[in-house]
Design brief:
By secondary structure, the chain is an alpha+beta fold. The chain contains 2 helices and 3 strands, in the order αβββα. It has a 3-stranded antiparallel sheet with strand order 1-2-3. α1 runs antiparallel to α2. The relative contact order is 0.15.
Length: 123
């Protein structure tokens, strides 16, 4: 290999290391960022981190009808699922915002990849 070829390889490795650092920083930022989803006009609120993990859930007491516990349980379950889906959608948008440019830099077409980019190393 020519001396110039080694320099190019070194530059390539430095670029790969810089990209990996950007990737890890973006993943850390996603893990530390919370998004909120709601349903039922705010009766249920779900908090999800940028990686899609549910970190909190609150249910307004107004969502509970003590006269019909069976129907209330079903309604609250539906509201909880809807709030989590809303928060997950927000988290996916956040993933695309943070990871999309990195994926394009790696030759990929999009972001929002749960679990990051396998095979680029890890802790």
């Amino acid at each position: 290999m020519e001396p110039g070829g080694q320099l190019n390889m070194q530059e390539l490795l430095q670029q790969a290391q810089a990209m990996q650092e950007q990737l890890f920083n973006a993943q850390r930022e996603l893990a530390e960022t919370e998004v909120t989803g709601t349903s039922g006009g705010g009766l249920v609120t779900a908090k999800v981190n940028g990686q899609g993990e549910v970190t909190g859930l609150s249910i307004d007491p107004k969502a509970i009808d003590t006269d019909d516990p069976a129907d209330t349980a079903e309604t609250v379950a539906d509201l909880v699922l809807a709030a989590i889906r809303d928060a997950a959608r927000e988290a996916q948008e956040l993933q695309q915002e943070k990871m999309g440019p990195l994926a394009q830099g790696l030759g990929g077409g999009g972001g929002g990849i749960p679990g990051g980019f396998p095979g680029l190393g890890g802790a």
